[in-house]
Amino acid sequence: MGHHHQTSKKHADPVCENSVDVNAALQYSNNDEMYYFNSEECLQVFKKNPEEFSMALGGRPGLFRGK
What we know:
By secondary structure, this protein is an alpha+beta fold. It has helices at about 40-50, 50-55, and strands at about 10, 20, 25-30, 35.
């Protein structure tokens, strides 16, 4: 039997929508919500206009935005 390791959680980067590992991602808290980013560039884009991405996610970080 193999060992059952706890896999790390995945979230969607709210800017580029790529899936990111929360343990390896850059983190940023906005309005008591934690967001995860796969690059410094995505984080900086988010910081310039966090409301755009927060609203696009319906206030639920870590979900893909769809269109």
